[in-house]
Amino acid sequence: MVKLKWLIMILAIVFLISSPVANAHSNNSEGFSKIDVQDQEINYNLQLDLIELSHAVGFKMNEQNVENLEEMNDIINQNKLPLQEYMNTHIVVYADSIPIEGTINQMSVLKIKERAFADIILSYSVNKIPENLNVRYNVFFEDSDPSHANMAKVQIGEKQQEFIFTYEVRELNIGEMSFFTSAKQFLLLGLKHIFTGYDHILFVISLLIGAVTIRHILSLVTAFTIAHSITLALATLDIVQLPGKLVESAIALSIIYIALKNIFQPESKHAPWIAFAFGLIHGFGFAGILAELNLGATHLAASLLFFNVGIELGQILIVSLVFPVLIFINKRLSYKWFLPSVSTAVLFFGCIWFFQRAF
């Protein structure tokens, strides 16, 4: 009877919070920039999540019909004026300390990783290639999504460098970014990716629920780390690519599998090979941002390394915080109801994510 009461209470809490949390992973919008500096012109190719852009600028669109690219193209072209005003006020460019204003030359809608993106080309006129280029980026941060991140690639002649615009870092000075700054940005991006990837977090926690010793935890975490590092590298290097919809659905299924195993086989320890097998799938999920950034060969290894280091640091922090809590609860409360109750809540979220992503 006590077990039933606790299960009902946990499920009630889950239903109350399921709407905002179930969609939290997809609410962290991404953007991509390619800034090409030429003799008398700077071309800024900007790709932004279409739904998030409509919220920020304030134009209406049917969010359930984003698959109709022709209709979406008509909508953004009908809103060229408010989009132009938004770009001029939220992206400020200085060439040799002189502000220059961009003009939208072209707009279209395309699909990136199964999501609709606005593809906008801005042009800035200059008299010569600037010695110093300053870009102040404030898209979405104050309007709709503080967790937005924009991965920028800057091309000046033969030189290329990468940068990430985030809520904390909104300004880029071309030619002034050190290796340390670049490494720190990709490390922070990895940290952010794991902490906003609630599906990855739930998977790791579900693995920990069945662990009873530090040695067992280390074997699970090590197996998961090695596996997702392999597929993260393969996907980022464009050696192996899988459809985003398939990867995200498979990640949800991995959560469902572990939750069901915790419910129906609570005494059975999770084997490291299970963590390794599912880690391969999660690695493709981690690779999404770096794969879309299309990093240059000279910066790819360092960017991949520090991004992965950020993920691992976040994972270690999660394990360090969660495992002692699980041990404490297990000792203070009845293990017989604790494991199936928590796993039921995890199963619920896994099912929500699977149906959202697969259908």
Automatic annotation (TrEMBL):
The chain crosses the membrane at residues 201-234, 246-264, 270-293, 305-329, 335-355. The keyword Transit peptide does not apply. InterPro entries: Put_HupE_UreJ. Pfam families: HupE_UreJ_2. It comes from the Bacteria. Residues 1-24 form the signal peptide. This is HupE/UreJ family protein. Keywords: Membrane, Signal, Transmembrane, Transmembrane helix. The keyword Transmembrane applies.
